[in-house]
# Entry
Amino acid sequence: SQQGEEDPQALSIQEGENATMNCSYKTSINNLQWYRQNSGRGLVHLILIRSNEREKHSGRLRVTLDTSKKSSSLLITASRAADTASYFCATDARSGANNLFFGTGTRLTVIP
Amino acid sequence: DAGVTQSPTHLIKTRGQQVTLRCSPKSGHDTVSWYQQALGQGPQFIFQYYEEEERQRGNFPDRFSGHQFPNYSSELNVNALLLGDSALYLCASSLEGQGVRNTIYFGEGSWLTVV
# Structure
């Protein structure tokens, strides 16, 4: 299975702290995308990083990709209570398949 | 710019019944994929439609079928519902020629409860 796996499964931090979530996957990819999901809602796209990129920033988000280790990390700086959600990484397959593989997500709780 | 829209948002069905879920892709997108997300799990790929044809399919039984219309909207049909089909069904849209190589947008999903 190419499924990505997020670590940790759950993370609880105080508002203002940074949150780091990790993702590992098994096979070669074209891209890796991070999504956020509020409870019972749809997935909101956060950031896409291509296999030839090592780091990408978007506002308070910083994503890194290490293709040699088949891993990625998502850093949320200066967290807010509104960041409370589940975060998923999603990978494609370099073989050309057109679907995304998701892990089980990291449940982030930011305590005000 | 309309995002991905899905209907209905919630529905309850009885075992053995059939259900149809609907999706309109983001404006300008022509490819629709469907995912099933069980409680506490990540989304699982069901299938993808492009040019009104099923182009790719995940590990789901034939009870799951779909359709894409000329306006790119799509339907997901599930026959002979089982309790285990209870899940959030997510529609995702993208633009062909880009596929997973660019951002894929998801709708808010349809919550299906089978009793």
Q: What stands out?
A: The two ends of chain A are 38 Å apart (CA to CA).
